[in-house]
Amino acid sequence: MSILGTRVVRTEDPLLLTVGGTYVDDLRVPELAGAARVTFVRSPVAHALITGIDVAAAREAPGVVAVLTVADIDDLPPPPPAPEGEPPPGSEAAPLPMGGPWAEPLLAVDRVRFVGEPVAMVLTDDTYAGEDAAELVSVDYEPLPAVVDLDAAVGGETLLFPAAGTNVAVTAGGPADGSAFDGCDVVVERTIVNQRLAPVSMEGRATAASWADGKLTVWVSTQNAQISRFIFAGAFGLDPAAIRVVAPDVGGAFGAKIGADRDAILVAWAAKHTGRAVRWVETRSENLVGMTHGRAQRQHIKIGGTRDGRILAYRNEVIQDTGAYPRMSGFLPFLTGLMASGPYDIGHVETANRVVVTNTTPISAYRGAGRPEATAAVERAVDLFAAEIGMDPAEVRRINLVPPDKFPYSSGGGAVYDSGEYVKALDQVLTAAGYEELRAEQARRRERGDPLQLGIGLASYVEITAADAAGGETAKVMVHDDGTATVYTGSSAHGQGHHTAWAMLVQGELGIPMERVTVLHGDTDLVPLGTGTYASRSLQLGGTAVHLAAVDVKEQARAVAADLLEASAPDLELDTERGVWQVRGDPASSRTWAEVAAHAGPDGLAADANFTDGQPTFPFGTHLAVVELDTETGKVALIRHVTVDDAGTVLNPLLAEGQRHGGIAQGAAQALLEEMVYDADGNPVTGTLVDYAIVTAAELPSFELLSSETPATSNPLGAKGIGEAGTIGATPAVQNAVVDAVSHLGIRHLDMPATPARVWAAINEATARTATREGQ
Amino acid sequence: MIPAPFTYKRASSVDEAVDLVARDGEDAKFLAGGHSLLPLMKLRLAVPQTLVDIGRLGELSYIRDEGDHIAVGAATTHGELASSGLLGRDLPLLAHAAGQVGDPQVRHCGTIGGSLAHADPAADLPAVVLALDATLVARGPAGSREIAAADFFRGLFETALEPGELLTEIRIGKPAAPGWAFQKFTKRAIDWAIVGVAVQGGRVALVNMDQTPVRAVAVESALADGAAPAEAAAHAAAGTSPSEDLNATRAYREHLARVLVRRALEAAQAAG
Fold first, then answer.
1. Which of A3, A67, A92, B73 pairs with A527 at a CA distance of 20 to 30 A?
2. Which residues of A touch B255 (CB under 8 A)?
């Protein structure tokens, strides 16, 4: 039986769960012996002019190696000029950081734009001395009004980038078509908030660097060692060949460690500038303001249709808070627009967005990156529409989901969905959850006025994975003369289980047992080219590349084995159960991989592959959440969560379920708990993990995961991505469940997170409204 | 997240600890479980010059039946309180509430004495010792003295302890008045209470409803006058002055106090 599709336990775990992996701060390599510690001096204010920086006292402090400010950055090439045809401010989206007037410096030049922005760096012999010396750096700030509110940002009374003449970095999409909703019996519209989140990866950001003999080595906690190398090359004007980037074990990222950010570039620069090896590991306080945040959209949704449940038109207009610097330009709201109409067959779909800068931590990708925002909006819209026409939300979904005979389906948002069984996923979840009985129990509780009300929330979704499928991924597979194999992958493991999965693919194709397969990644000396891990792309691109390389090696081996056995190649077969080559039907002739590889000659058995897919894939599913809501206190408990997450053919159900578990937890956390809050002056209010409430196991039920596999048609593994399905599906399902629990009170919407205070306030207001009405 | 420099001394006895702190004056702090002090030091909100570690002093870690009262050593951890058979039988309120503090890691390090001396109005055990009408024993250079729990909490993070005084023991009379309950309202299991209620017999104490833990005096007198739980609970916020923060407005805290006190009184009635 093939190992593919079986529940193989993660080979990474014994190390990660016992003696620990090797993260950047654990590195004890000779190049980093005696490395100086970097401590950043960060802006304590959200918006100010810098009128002076005095580092004299800090330079005199004990243990200080160097104190660096922007004045010391005199050895870098100027940033490349804005390329021809770069969109001027206020035009179409471009998925790269914007240059020109929006350019982000490395260290603050004459202005700070968010609390946490790097202003100076202190290099010391140890961390403690660094923290003390950093306090001695005296920066004169001339405060400016902080722009925090989105309307204030659009209004532009205070500008973050005066040269840009506006706070609106990108405007995309068309104006509303006045007649789009003309044929609708019912139209509902509403402004909703998809709140700002902090990624809170378990390991924060970390970088170490050394510069010796004209070669720069950077160890960085990143999702993409190879991309990072080109970023460093560009920043330092170095030939990429003079740079080695290593991503050792990475303790989580969630999109916030794509590439290398300014802090990482600064650490590498400090090594090159001072000639001394340096290392930096951020504290959790730094992490909460220095690592990019995610989401942060305000959406105006409008949905219309017929009284019998057919949705005819939908519009989602987004204001994307991009924080102090438009690092992702218009990419996140572009994805929100692309996936706007979700899994529904809607005749008229409109999207528009504006990207605005504010005096807050920059926004970037966070588990889903624009797609959870799309799903959250349309799933709320569908429920608002269902409530307005008085129809069961499950029924409205069933009526409007794209039917199986319409694939490939061109969506109103502009995507082409590859394959799907959307109604089947919905029905599978409804059946497993016992939907009818849940509704009956809800009715009984309402009837008896139970303080503990039941809420049932649905979210049907389709998402896009490997959106940049054309960018591809690399792999190399080698079989050695001792019968072992090595896989080099451009994909980047940071918790997903790549090592297990890639070894399974090799065993499945070549019959070399997993434990004899070594997987190497995240070192540009070993794997110079690759893309890395984001956008749920790893298995379908990186896994396929491994598969193709293994197939190539197999065909090479067939020829070698034929020579060895003095048989003709077509007569040979590989017994993948035993991992031996033999003449078809003649087990006595069998030769091991070691024997075949030894016979292969000086080049051995090795193959490279670079798999680029012609199109992204579109996983889909339905989530159903059940909450109990205490109407006396406003507290919500998620008590059940039932899902179908169809990500095509599943290589290892254990890994796929792990991704779903983590994603559902994060999705539920956004719906119920998490929000990065700033006060009016741009100070983070949730700057510690006491106030920024990540979810814990105590708040979550055991998830009920149903299985469904509709193979992708564009890659040989049939795989789609699974990494972000959880946040995409769970967030609106839980939010809809909360609203559903209090819908009988006349409540139609609650913004996230549904904290007890917010829920209680809504109940209070609804009760007062009813009392007033009854009093009249 | 990196504390300022400090000197660390580990005391081998209570006497030595008191001596060491007396020597360094106001710049010295006792360190027990470290779960209140160390976070403040990491944020540089507290910058003591010297820490005197009393966390491993066996003479401060015990739960003893003294006949008419139970004596608890100040360095007894929340975990030890929660799992104590003696407390489970004679003072279930204390055992139960200690089991609700933070998470297992916090409970295995944090101590009852540390929690009381830190006097965070959002902490659980200060209100519990008020509801139990406990007596606190402090030792300073001048010797030992007893302080009634009702006199102990003076303000936000402020107690009746004199500089250099160490809280050594908590004494709780027995048998406890019949009927107890503890209600803690949080966003997450590991959070500090947004509002909490401890009830023992006719005594009702509130968590996070003022600058200090407070007795719900109006509720207690209503109960004494024979009011039913729901009736008495309506007075739960009377005389309190709760703060406003990210988790709750004042009005919401007052509302929660009424709901939680009613639930606690009903539970206490059922338990009694």
1. A3
2. 760
